[in-house]
Amino acid sequence: MFEYLKIWNKHARLREGVRHVVYLDSLGKPTAGIGHLLTAHERKVFKVGDPVSDTQVQAWFIADTHEAEQASLKQAAEIGVETDWFIAALISVNFQLGANWIKKFKTTYPAIVNHEYDRAIGNLRRSLWYKQTPVRVEDFIRALERARDFKGRPLKKTRTMTGGAVASASVVASEVVSEVTEYIEPVKDYIEVIQMVFVVLTLVGVGLMIHARMDDRKKGLR
Known about the structure:
By secondary structure, the protein is mainly alpha-helical. The longest helix is centred in the last third of the chain and has 28 residues, at 191-218. It has two domains: 3-150, Lysozyme; 155-218. A three-stranded antiparallel beta sheet has the order 1-2-3. Helix 3 (54-79) crosses helix 4 (84-97), helix 4 runs antiparallel to helix 9 and helix 7 (117-125) runs antiparallel to helix 9. Helix content is 69%, strand content 5%. It contains twelve helices and three strands; from the N terminus they run αβββααααααααααα.
């Protein structure tokens, strides 16, 4: 299991709880299990007060989490903060509000994408969502505040991307040299040495990527 899913599973049980009965949520909508909002079809099968089996609860949670996870991974990539703790925070938002929340928060989400975190946080604290479930919103705000320290490391400038760029450039350059040597006579005598240099550079690039990922994980950036 991915680390962000472990974080989310723990958080979900803390915030959502587990209820094996159909109940009305804070907005008066039929809900059951781990914060599962019943669909129109499910409301025909399950009535408020009806018991719900643990098997059904888990099935709903797995399906709801998967949907929220897919949306969160796309959003994290768009925002440029692809860390376990941030993805887990996004899963919580998508789980509660649905994947279309980014369309409803027409100024807040673009602010997050542009790393205008203070503006986004201000919008969230003035939102209807905050009035309805302030604890949930504060959870997300804490993730955004943490992301402010991360915004100075846009993805294209991270050590991971730098290492990847070194590795990729070395591979491409090696292929180019191989192609042109048949036309440049003096280079033929040194082709093996040149290719060895590119191999070393590729390994260095890969090493940089691995080291950056391990170091970032230790610092809580991944």
